[in-house]
Automatic annotation (TrEMBL):
TM helices/strands, residue ranges: 78-100, 120-140, 147-171, 261-284
GO cellular component annotations of the record: plasma membrane
Recorded topology in the membrane: Multi-pass membrane protein
Subcellular compartments: Membrane
Lineage: Eukaryota, Metazoa, Chordata, Craniata, Vertebrata
The name this protein goes by in its record: Tetraspanin
UniProt-listed InterPro entries: Tetraspanin/Peripherin (IPR018499), Tetraspanin_CS (IPR018503), Tetraspanin_EC2_sf (IPR008952)
Length: 294
């Protein structure tokens, strides 16, 4: 009788010759699976850099390729961009608050000081939020394309801010004059546009002012008369209006209520410069690490 036992790692053949008087048994054992076991272990490990842990292995190589500087720059850039993103949220929030505060003036031309400031804060806050998000994502993912995109957008933003500040400083008088001319042109729709009429009345009642630069601005519009909102409540007809001009009063109100925004904007500018520096450093470090891996 012959019994054959085959296991995963070995094959055992037992041969028995039976008889009443006894018999002989021969046992042959052969190690057939040793080579297969070694081959299987080699397949489990896989080639370097292609197995399940290859991403972590390559990332470790990348992190150590330039002396560990990449890790430090990565998290510093993430922190700065997080602050940058939060700053954008703050600017956007102030713009929304200012827009709601000036909602009753919404029919006035956008050159009105408080309205132009609200729109500027909304645009600047929105762009800052998007840019900060790209910076955080690029830092965490260590993607050169995202870092390059972030650097270029932020560079354009910083240059635009610098140019705007320079233009506003150099041409402040011309900009004020143009804005006042636009407001005077809009006054001619006072009779035909009810929403514009409401906005002008609200402005003059709130700031206790009359006209753009003085009360004579209304004479061409209302044929020598003044709107009732130029005088205190109960004065009808309004003969001697408020002496203060509305443009200067609105501008003064804006400067008195937004000093903290200016300081906040200065801090955001510093963070922008630091984010530019760290994004450039991180881009160079990743490029250095990729070259070393190649």
């Amino acid at each position: 009788m012959i019994f054959i036992f085959i296991s995963e790692r070995s094959a055992v053949v037992v041969a028995g010759l039976g008889g009443r008087g006894g018999g002989r048994r021969a046992v042959f054992q052969r190690e057939a699976g040793a080579a297969e076991l070694r081959n299987g272990d080699a397949e489990d490990k896989g080639p370097r850099g292609t197995g399940p842990g290859a991403g972590t292995e390559l990332r470790s190589c990348r992190m150590s390729a330039c002396g560990g500087c990449l890790c430090c720059v990565k998290y510093l850039m993430f922190v700065f961009n997080l602050v940058f993103w939060l700053g954008g949220c703050g600017l956007f929030g102030v713009g929304v608050w200012l827009s709601f505060t000036q909602a009753e003036f919404s029919s006035l031309p956008l050159s009105f000081p408080s309205l132009s400031a609200a729109n500027l804060l909304l645009v600047a806050g929105g762009v800052t939020m998007v840019t900060g998000f790209l910076g955080c994502l690029g830092a965490l993912k260590e993607q050169r394309c995202l870092l390059f995109m972030f650097f270029m957008i932020l560079l354009v933003l910083v240059l635009t801010e610098a140019v705007l500040m320079l233009v506003m400083h150099l041409y402040q008088d011309q900009l004020d004059s143009r804005a006042q001319d636009q407001l005077r042109e809009g006054m001619h729709r006072y009779k035909s546009d009810p929403s514009l009429q409401t906005s002008w009345d609200n402005v003059q009642k709130m700031f206790k002012c009359c006209g753009v630069s003085n009360k004579t601005d209304w004479w061409d519009v209302l044929e020598g008369a003044l709107p009732a909102s130029c005088c205190s409540v109960g004065t009808d007809p309004c003969v001697d209006g408020w002496p203060e001009p509305c443009y200067q009063k609105a501008r003064q109100w804006l400067l008195e209520n937004i000093p903290s925004v200016l300081v906040f904007g200065l801090c955001i500018g510093v963070v922008q410069i630091m984010a530019l520096v760290f994004s450039l450093l991180m881009y160079c470090q990743i490029r250095c690490a990729d070259k070393d891996l190649d």
